[in-house]
Amino acid sequence: MNNDAQRVWKAAALTEVLRAIAQSETLCARLIFKGGRILHRRLGREARQSYDLDAALTQAFVAEFPEREAQRRAIHDELTSSLARYFARVDPVQFTPRDVRVVLKPRDAHPQGWNAFEVQIRLVDLALQRGQTPPTLTIDLSAPESLGPKATATMDVDGHQVTAYTLERIAGEKLRAFLSSLPTHRAKFAKPGNAVRAKDLYDLACIATAMPLSNSVFWDTVALEFGHACASRHVDCVGIASFAEQFEVTRAAYAGDATIPKDIPFDVAWSAVREIVSRFEATGAVPRSYPSRPSP
């Protein structure tokens, strides 16, 4: 498969994986879905294609399984069973599960307690020609986060209900995620790498188009959820200056990211983010800062 074919295949296969998870009451009680695929559903249209699934572990799940290895086994065993049950019922058969791996992230316990997992799923696709190997699918599972009263809501997936982030929480998390990719936050926690999450700017522009800044109820809730998101990962923000850090690098990353559609130019996306953060500054939602380590 070339890169384009892999992306198309992943998009279709992940839709089936989400359907399988939605039919597991156990997994639905352990996961809160978020990320690009949930953003598309909340907007009611496809904005930017997403090639993985994202979810946060629930506090209840972590409390039930305090040890990381027990968490890993519980996710692995239920997901393996759920995929097998779902694909066995699909007619005509296209996919069958080959392998499920649940990898600790990081390998050793996170110093802040933000222990996460990467799920790697390999499927057999009977529709592929002999010799074609489908790519590995991934599900990123993050540690539980602080959530406001309007952070989550149910979402229908083919007649089954999952818990997912609201559009307000997704907007707040997108803002937080972009800041966490910049040098100041990376230096704070000695995080390796230097990839700027320019795609978050595109997503925020899509949200601002659907929910104009004149919708004060919506954006006041986004500000509250931004606060919860930042507090959960100790992400500081002085205001628009934090977002503008290494501005030209961000501009270049936006232009060079093949996964970002070309319908929203960088200047338009940046203008939307600037207006959002200006509103936060005016209402006192920023500045905010946190210690690098939680209080004992």
Report on the structure:
- This protein has 296 residues and is an alpha+beta fold.
- It has helices at residues 3-22, 25-30, 36-43, 59-64, 68-89, 167-180, 183-188, 199-210, 216-233, 240-243, 247-256, 266-283; strands spanning 31-34, 53-57, 95-105, 116-125, 137-142, 152-157, 160-165.
- The strands form 2 sheets. A 5-stranded mixed β-sheet has the order 1-2-5-4-3. It has a two-stranded antiparallel sheet with strand order 6-7.
- The termini are far apart.
- Helix 8 crosses helix 12.
- Strand 6 and strand 7 (160-165) form a beta hairpin.
- The protein has 2 domains: 3-165, Beta Polymerase, domain 2; 167-283, no CATH class.
- It is globular and about 55 Å long.
Q: Could you name the key traits of this structure?
A:
single chain, 296 residues, alpha+beta, Beta Polymerase, domain 2, five-stranded mixed beta sheet, two-stranded antiparallel sheet, 12 helices, 7 strands, globular
List the helices and strands and how they pair.
Layout: H1 3-22, H2 25-30, E1 31-34, H3 36-43, E2 53-57, H4 59-64, H5 68-89, E3 95-105, E4 116-125, E5 137-142, E6 152-157, E7 160-165, H6 167-180, H7 183-188, H8 199-210, H9 216-233, H10 240-243, H11 247-256, H12 266-283
Parallel strand pairs: 2-5
Antiparallel strand pairs: 1-2, 3-4, 4-5, 6-7
Helix pairs in contact: 1-5, 6-8, 6-9, 8-12
Order of helices and strands: HHEHEHHEEEEEHHHHHHH
Number of strands: 7
> Per DSSP, what share of the residues sits in E-state strands of 2 or more residues?
15-25%
Uncertain parts = none
Tell me the Rg in angstroms. 19 Å
Largest sheet: 5 strands, mixed
CATH architecture of the largest domain: 2-Layer Sandwich
